[in-house]
Design a protein that fits this description.
The complex is a heterodimer of chains A (572) and B (207). Chain A is mainly alpha-helical and 572 residues long. Chain A is 65% helix and 0% strand. Chain A is globular and about 65 Å long. The N and C termini of chain A lie far apart (65 Å). Chain B is mostly helical and 207 residues long. Chain B is built from 5 helices and no strands. The radius of gyration of chain B is 23 Å and the shape is elongated. The relative contact order of chain B is 0.14. Classes of the chains: A mainly alpha (572), B mainly alpha (207). At the A-B interface, helix 1, helix 7, helix 8 and helix 9 of A face helix 1 and helix 4 of B.
């Protein structure tokens, strides 16, 4: 080989899809490394969380007093429409995809996703879609018809904003379909040979169920939006009753996606919580298979209950009964998970650190949201509180008390793996305390408001609701403040935090068996399973995992494999 | 330093370009094929959504198609349907040929498939220009144009995919008995487009 050739091969030109992270600029490039993409997803979605949060606080500021005195009614409509759209499609859904991207290949011992370039494409559809929405708000012509965009309302409230909304949601839907294809193929085809389905960490099971759901439901929303776009832009009347169309068909298509979407938003974090609770309780997970299969059951049931959002849309009575019963049945697999987590914690050596606190907060608040969900599933009750703040309270307990607390639990838990540094636990606890107070102060009074009869999506209301609304508004300000310690803690810890080592929580799943942050292709040698994913404190486990025998350990690992004997001592 | 031999495979930057890892992105042909199937499930669900909406509109209106809708001619779309079904078999020949290492045969069959797909599209456009109803005439007309149009878009993508395979196959050895993922992917996609058309034809023209 000539010197010139050597030079050429040794200095590979900056290639557009060179995988891996070498300098911080790589996070802003079209990178195909799943870990880079995972962080891109997480950071981007967190930025949208902040934007969506500002919109929420503007909505709450308008609602602080019964009169319309802060923004015009049109702007108010745009604010709550975009708040919901951003929080759902640009924060919770992509955050779940972010964790899946970072963790799945590590957890199953793969070098990367099945389709790294497709993966990058899926991510890079998100920023333009989000920018479109924000631009529509800045130019003062954003969608005003709520995040459901029900026709015929959505056909008369402003073409530009509605068109942008449809375009943006179609892009985000495409992104999540591409992501789901990647997750499914990766999980089904790229596990290390020794990992059967029952050795898979529960987060992988959760993503399997989530991806199947995305794959089957998101395209139906796309079909609905395509028809809606024709109505809006080309003058067809699919959903416009004046031309013989049927708006209820849109509702069916919309909820066929958007009901499963709540499981798309919660299942990944059910998975994350199933990882976090056993590690920080130092106990094997209770009911591994029950938790794994209940994810699949939730997926399946989630697909057949969409019309419970339409009890007041004039669907036939017998159909209401079907959807009421199937909806209530979902409480069973969900309950299986909740009780398995409680049983895992029972008698464990619980470490009350930030990830565990958020996980426990998740379980507690999600149960409140779940119970109000069972109430809403009952047709008579639903008809009574339909489109009131009771529904708003329910969905925020599920999505904020569930998904968002789950995201924070997962961030605190995997931050050391992602960055190689620990987050500050004290400020994590401050963040947790502010969040729990803010969340309950904001959303608990809404149950009462709903039962008293306050409508959702209104800027002006009866003065008798004033006091509770004021409490909600101040609660939302606390929630806004609660993110500050988190943001500062995350940035500071990323730069100067205490070095984490490879396995700060002494985990047994494969992602802890490599360096922090993991090297470009994750593992030097093909990992071999020597223990179950949750064998904490199990008597036979230590013999299986002495450092010298464990081929999973990287040569440059700076600490021995965690000793599990200490767990056993505390348990006996 | 000059005399020292550097093994490029061991340098930091070239770590990922060793013989074992150079095919990192392309090393799982079976995964890619599986990926195509998973992708087509999503595609299928878009069409299922559209078909479901069509059936829902149909069930809410007592007379379907709505009174005054001109009857559809069956001859041209019928011929077009036969053409599309036949093209699926032609496409399969291309795949069989490359599995016997017959690159020339494959190219011929691919070209015929692409031509048949193009004929289908021309036929569809011809039909559009001769129909006596427009996009906004009534609900049936709107559904007809949107559904057939969306399918036509997929045929177009299929033809482009086949042409892309044909373009790549001009390099000798690009596709071979062992390595023919592109051909198979295009074939599966083409069969999918065909199956969707059969359902669509039944729904719109016959039912």
């Amino acid at each position: 080989m000539t010197q010139a050739q050597l030079q050429e091969t040794a200095n590979i030109p900056a290639h557009i899809d060179e995988p891996g992270i070498r300098k911080w600029q790589d996070y802003f490039s079209f990178n195909t490394d799943h870990k880079v993409i995972g962080l891109q997803y997480l950071v981007t979605s967190f930025i949208f969380y902040c934007i969506g949060g500002v919109l929420a606080d503007l909505v709450r500021t308008e609602l602080r007093t019964p009169e319309v005195d802060f923004v015009s009614p049109e702007v108010y409509n745009s604010l709550f429409t975009l708040h919901a759209t951003i929080m759902i499609f640009l924060w919770i859904v992509p955050a779940g995809a972010g964790f899946a991207n970072f963790l799945l290949p590590l957890m199953i011992g793969a070098k990367d996703m099945a389709f790294p370039r497709l993966n990058a494409v899926a991510f890079w559809l998100i920023p333009p879609a989000g920018l479109l929405l924000i631009i529509s708000l800045v130019i003062g012509d954003a969608a005003e018809a709520g995040w459901t965009s029900y026709p015929p309302l959505s056909l008369v409230t402003g073409q530009v904003g509605e068109g942008i909304w449809i375009m943006s949601v179609l892009l985000l839907g495409t992104s999540s379909i591409l992501g789901a294809i990647n997750f499914l193929v990766t999980l089904l085809k790229m596990r290390i040979p020794t990992m059967g389905f029952h050795q898979m960490p529960l987060f992988c099971w959760a993503m399997l169920a989530t991806s199947a759901l995305v794959l089957l439901s998101t395209p139906v929303l796309a079909a609905g939006l395509i028809l809606l776009a024709f109505d809006l832009l080309a003058g067809t009347t699919f959903f416009n009753p004046t031309g013989g169309g049927d708006p209820v068909v849109y509702q069916h298509m919309f909820w066929f996606y958007s009901h499963p979407a709540v499981y798309i938003m919660i299942l990944p974090f059910f998975g994350a919580i199933s990882e976090i609770i056993p590690i920080h309780s130092r106990k094997p997970i209770f009911g591994y298979k029950a938790i794994a299969y209940s994810s699949l059951a939730i997926s399946f049931l989630g697909l057949i209950v969409w019309a419970h959002h339409m009890f007041t849309s004039g669907i036939p009575g017998w159909l209401r009964m079907f959807f009421m019963i199937t909806t209530m049945i979902i409480a069973v697999p969900t309950g299986i998970k909740i009780f398995s987590w409680l049983a895992t914690m029972w008698g464990g050596k619980i470490q009350f650190n930030s990830p565990m606190l958020f996980a426990m907060g998740f379980v507690g608040t999600f149960v409140i949201g779940g119970i109000s969900g069972v109430m809403l599933a009952a047709v008579p009750f639903d008809i009574h509180v339909h489109d009131t703040y009771f529904v708003v309270a329910h969905l925020h307990y599920v999505l904020f008390g569930g998904s968002v607390l789950g995201i924070f639990a997962a961030i605190y838990h995997w931050f050391p793996k992602m960055t190689g540094r620990m987050m500050n636990d004290f400020w994590g606890k401050v963040h947790f305390a502010l969040t729990i107070v803010g969340l309950n102060m904001t959303f608990l009074p809404m149950h009462k408001l709903g039962l008293m009869g306050m409508n959702r999506r209104v800027a002006q209301y009866d003065p008798k609701f004033a006091l509770l609304n004021e409490i909600c508004t101040y609660g939302s300000y606390i929630l806004a403040v609660s993110t500050l310690p988190f943001i500062i803690n995350a940035i500071w810890s990323w730069l100067y935090g205490e070095k984490a080592g490879n396995n700060p929580w002494k985990g047994l799943t494969l992602e802890w068996m490599t360096t922090s942050p993991p090297a470009i292709e994750n593992f030097d040698t093909l990992p071999v399973l020597t223990t179950g994913p949750y064998d904490y404190g199990v008597a036979h486990a230590p013999a299986n995992v002495s450092p010298s025998e464990n081929p999973v350990l990287r040569a440059d690992a700076d600490e021995p494999y965690p000793s599990i004997e200490s767990d056993i001592e505390t348990r006996t | 330093m000059q005399s020292q031999t550097i093994d490029p495979a061991k340098t930091e930057l070239n770590h990922h370009h060793t013989a074992e890892t150079v095919g990192h992105h392309e090393e799982h042909p079976d995964h890619r094929l599986f990926g195509i199937f998973v992708f087509l499930i999503a595609e299928g669900m878009i069409f299922m959504g559209l078909f479901g909406a069509y059936l829902a509109f149909r069930s809410t209106i007592p007379v379907w198609p709505p009174a005054g809708t001109p009857e559809l001619e069956l001859l041209l779309p019928g011929v077009n349907t036969v053409n599309l079904i036949a093209s699926s078999f032609v496409m399969h020949n291309a795949d069989t040929a490359i599995k016997k290492n017959d690159a020339k045969g494959m190219r011929t069959w691919l070209a015929i498939t692409a031509a048949m797909g193009a004929i289908f599209l021309v036929g569809q456009v011809y039909e559009y220009t001769h129909l006596e109803f427009g996009l906004t005439t009534n609900l049936f007309a709107s559904a007809f144009y949107v559904l057939t149009g969306f399918h036509g878009l997929h045929v177009t993508i299929g033809v482009l995919a086949i042409l892309a395979v044909l373009w790549r196959s001009r390099t000798p050895g690009h596709y071979s008995k062992e390595k023919h993922f592109g051909v198979e992917a295009a074939e599966i996609y083409w069969h999918f487009v065909d199956v969707i058309w059969i359902i669509l034809f039944g729904l719109l023209y016959l039912l």
